[in-house]
Amino acid sequence: MSETTTSQELEATLNKTDLGHIVYEKRKLIIVLLGALLVIILGWMSMKSIRSSQETKGSEGVFHFQNDVWAQVKAGKMTTDEMMTKYEALDSGAKSSASMIPLALEVSKFLVEKNEVEKADKFLSVIDPNNEIGKFFIVHQRAILLEKMNKVDEAIEIVKGLKTKKEGIMPAHLELLLGRLYMVKGNSQEAKATLEGVINNYPNDEEAKLAKLYLGEVK
Asked: Is the pTM of this model over 0.90?
């Protein structure tokens, strides 16, 4: 059967319905769109595979750091300076891995207890979690550390940056933290506005009660 005959039969079959006629008339465009869709799907699958591979590699890096470096630091067999050097040499995938977050928080707490607050913040500052929950915990801890170092302006900025994210985690808590930081800075106007926002927007949350207490201290 010739290609011409096949094409004619296809046209005749499709033309039996309005939809079929449209499909036949737009067949070239449809083929192009299907091809583009296939490329997009294949690209998405490839990217997903790459990200999965990167996360696996990152998790392995965290595992080795935890067992080869962090374990020695806790045992007193390695200094925190040596730990920081090895940490900075870690692959970026390890630093952004979800498995790094609980370890980073543990390390920062250890460093704070040794009065090495600057190192604790430096350890956390290079982490860029891929999820909002991870970012919340990192930013929250960093804000506390920056306040300890009298870098209140920087603390305010990172909290504000996280607060503007869509689908934010614990928004009332972040607002309360921001209001308290404004109090520490001595910015009474911003502190009052932020704390009143907590009370008005989250009246049933525990943070609203704390905001009222803080508000009583604003001069």
From this structure: no
Residue 32, amino acid: V
Rounded distance, CA 117 to CA 143, Å?
Answer: 12
Which residue in 181, 179, 186 sits closest to 208, CA to CA? Answer: 179
Q: Report the C-alpha gap between 129 and 74 in whole angstroms.
A: 25
In angstroms and rounded to an integer, the radius of gyration of the C-alpha atoms of the chain is 28
CATH architecture of 59-215: Alpha Horseshoe (1.25)
Q: Is 187 left (phi over 0), alpha (psi -120 to 50) or beta?
A: beta
Measured CA to CA, the distance from residue 111 to residue 123 in angstroms comes to 10
Are the CB atoms for 171 and 163 separated by under 8 Å?
yes
Q: What is the pLDDT of residues 168-219, one digit of tens each?
A: 678 889 999 999 999 999 999 999 999 999 999 999 889 999 999 988 888 7
Instruction: Specify whether the backbone of 47 is left (phi greater than 0), alpha (psi in -120 to 50) or beta.
Output: alpha
Task: Please check whether residue 134 is in contact with residue 101, taking contact to mean a CB–CB distance below 8 angstroms.
Answer: yes
Q: Residue 52 in contact with residue 60, Cβ under 8 Å?
A: no
Tokens at residue 128, please?
């860029």
CA distances (Å), origin 6, targets 3, 10, 12, 26, 82: 5, 6, 10, 18, 75
Residue with tokens 């929250």: 140
**Every domain of the chain and the residues it spans:** 59-215
101 contacts 137 by C-beta, under 8 angstroms:
yes
Question: Measured between alpha carbons, how far is 160 from 153 in angstroms, rounded to an integer?
Answer: 11
